[in-house]
Amino acid sequence: EVTPPRPPHSVSLLSSMTAGRKERGSEAGRPAPSGRGFEDGAAADASGGSAAHLPQGPDQAQLVESNEPLTLSMSMHPLLQAKNFFASSRVSSSYLVDGDVTQLYSGDALDDTPLENRIFRDRTTCFGLRFKLLSVERVFLNGRARQNKYVVVLGYALVFFLSLMEVLKTWLLKKFKDVHCPDIEDNSTETDISCSKAESFYSYGAFAYQLTYILPSYGLFTVLGIASHVYIHKSKRVHDKAWAMLATFVLYFVFGTALYTATIITREKQWPDHFLNSAVQGLTVYLFFSGTPTFSSFFVLSILTLVVYFVAFPLSYRHVKSKFGEKSTDALELKTNFTQDAYPLLLTIFIELVGAYISEVSRRKQFLQGVIMINQQEEIIQRKAKNETIQKDLLENMLPTSIVSKLQEQNFAVQSWDQLRSLSQRHSGVCIMFAELEGFTAFSAEVSPPRVMEYLNDLFYVFDSLCEEHDVYKVETVADQYVAAVGVVTGKMLSEELSRDLSENDRQKSDVKFAMDETSNGGSARSDESLLGASTFNTVRMIDFAKAIMRGSKCVEVPSSSIPPMLRIGIHTGPCMSGIVGTKNFRFCLFGDTMNTAARMEQKGTAACVHTTQDVVDLVPGERWEKLAKMEVKGKGSMQTYLLRLGSGSS
């Protein structure tokens, strides 16, 4: 059968709610929910439609064919995690709050389309009057009990109010008899017949009898009902509030049985009229004010009423016949009353049973709708959190964690200088290293591009692993060039953010305030000693790293070529700036003279050696530095440089 197309919200949701789905983690094969989320887990976006509607397609066909029962994820909702709802759950019962319950009963029920009716039938039994899983049924009953806890109290009060009306009716009949029927004779006139009926009715329901027995009985019923109901809902020991439903049903059952019995015993030939009156009032109050799912318990009370009514007649008729005779007017009146009252009693019970059934099925569909929407909301939240985690992990592999956090605050958009400035910092005592493969151009000309790519990947994988070991931050790779730094993200960091309020000239003249990173036992105030200590610490770390990657390069298999590539390294220590450049394809970059000098050291260096400046040698004089002749460096002029030979850099 063809159904209208539905929003694609709920396919993965309903598929995940079948028992065959062993784990929520295996969601890669299911399509992610689309569309907007839901507010308070209850109402769908007006433009998106109801979450219970299902799209057409392969997933829909697969869902229609599934006969597996509904299962609820333990992570679905606090209400469904509550203690005593699931055998394996140990979650605190404090999650059972009334606000959570109303979410499961708000909104419309599932639409009566063939597909959605099939979904409901597959997850219920007993003609839709019970969910197949006991855990789901208990959640439904508990929610109903919590939602209608005040309605039940109103029902008990209404029962007592009706008993007061019965007393008032008896009093009015007494007044009518006293005024209009001071002395009556049976079978005289129509007025005498009316007075006779009033006398007959009143004689069995005397005012004193009502006050002595009936009203106290109703009062006791009301007090017991309200007390038990309040105790169950207020008690912290009773986590499953569905016990209030059972208590209400038992009280109505016991009191109804007692009331029916008393009516039959005390009323003789008029008991069918009183029975009909009591049954209609009691069943109607129970149907609308008992707070139960209505049909199952209402059906039991209806059967009780009919059994008592039809079983009591032959017994009472036998008693009246033996007392007044078979041809007496009393026996005839009893037959007449029983016959006349049987039809309205049967009709009333039938109509209320049909209404109770339709109402309960609608409530269960509404509950299923609420579960679907809450489960979908939870799945959307989980997917969003998972995507955000993946996104953040990916960004943290490309950018420092501090930069990622700031970008998150700016919604990953850099559209102004103020935003760019907030991502920029000045650093002091930073040691920067450039490493490059000498002879790479000739090597790549002889070796196929896939093999070159594989070799670089293996080589830089070794370098990346050594970064974590030596507390070095990898800045970037460009072709065969590898750039790393210590003192920007790792090591001892002396850094400051750019001021928002100072002009460029004022910023250059202002005193710089540095914040020492506590990672390496640094201080908090800027001084020459702290700058010297940070520079020395970072430089030692970088030289150790340079030695490690030189050794690691020997462990990487090099494709055969006439000119194997060899690693050369350049290092320099000094101040620099860091930040994000551009608004797309974010890259964390370092700027400044220190970067340029380190790059020049690498370009002027020798294979299998570390080429560095006088500043680095002054910081780490203990290494076996080889002093070189002064050389001209572009942009720097004449410089004194040094080599640290690390052995053959070839594989």
Provide a descriptive summary of the structure in words.
There is one protein chain. This protein has helices at about 10-15, 60-65, 100-105, 115-120, 135-145, 150-180, 190-205, 205-235, 245-265, 270-290, 295-325, 330-395, 400-410, 415-420, 440-445, 450-470, 505-510, 530-555, 595-605, 615-620; strands at about 125, 130, 425-440, 475-480, 480-485, 495, 515, 565-580, 590, 610-615, 625, 630-635, 635-640, 640-645. It has about 650 residues and is an alpha+beta fold. The strands form 3 sheets. Strands 3, 4, 5, 6, 7, 8, 9, 10, 11 and 14 form a 10-stranded mixed beta sheet that branches. Strand 4 and strand 5 form a beta hairpin. The longest helix is centred in the middle third of the chain and has 68 residues, at about 330-395. The two termini are about 70 Å apart.
Instruction: Kindly state the percentage of residues in helix.
Output: 40-55%
Low-confidence stretches are 1-99, 184-191, 500-526
Largest sheet: 10 strands, mixed
Helical run tally: 20
Structural class: alpha+beta
SS strand fraction: 5-15%
| Global outline | rod-shaped
Rg calc: 44 Å
Mean pLDDT: 75
Cα distance, first to last residue?
71 Å
By DSSP, the count of extended strands is 14
Question: What are the key terms here?
Answer:
651 residues; alpha+beta; 20 helices; 14 strands; 11% strand
Topology:
Blueprint: H1 11-16, H2 58-65, H3 98-103, H4 114-122, E1 124-125, E2 130-131, H5 134-147, H6 149-180, H7 190-204, H8 207-234, H9 243-267, H10 271-289, H11 295-324, H12 329-396, H13 401-409, H14 417-422, E3 425-438, H15 440-446, H16 449-470, E4 473-478, E5 481-486, E6 494-497, H17 504-509, E7 515-516, H18 528-553, E8 566-580, E9 588-591, H19 593-603, E10 609-613, H20 614-619, E11 626-627, E12 631-633, E13 637-639, E14 641-645
Parallel strand pairs: 8-10
Antiparallel strand pairs: 1-2, 3-5, 3-6, 3-8, 4-5, 6-7, 8-9, 10-14, 11-14, 12-13
Helix pairs in contact: 6-7, 6-8, 6-10, 8-9, 9-10, 9-11, 10-11, 10-12, 11-12, 16-18
